[in-house]
Design brief:
Strand 1 and strand 2 form a beta hairpin. The chain is mainly alpha-helical.
Length: 74
């Protein structure tokens, strides 16, 4: 549950900076903060997505469950 709260705060701050950028522009340190927050968000999002895929199983017509296998892009 703590992760969700941190993610909410992270998204809230990203949105604050995006709105300020549209209204009046951002100072250089705010642009840097915005970029760091976006990177942090993407890392968390990708980690959660990979975790979800790691726990996903496919059910075949015969009723057996098979885990998804990682197949890198070619």
């Amino acid at each position: 549950m703590e992760l969700d709260f941190d993610m909410e705060k992270l998204i809230s701050r990203i949105n604050e900076l995006a709105n300020k950028k549209k209204r009046e522009g951002l100072r250089p340190e705010e642009l840097e903060e915005q970029q760091m927050l976006r990177q942090e968000y993407l890392e968390i999002f990708r980690g959660n997505f990979k975790n979800q895929l790691a726990h996903t199983k496919i059910q075949t017509p015969d009723g057996k469950l098979h885990p998804l296998k990682y197949m890198p892009m070619q």
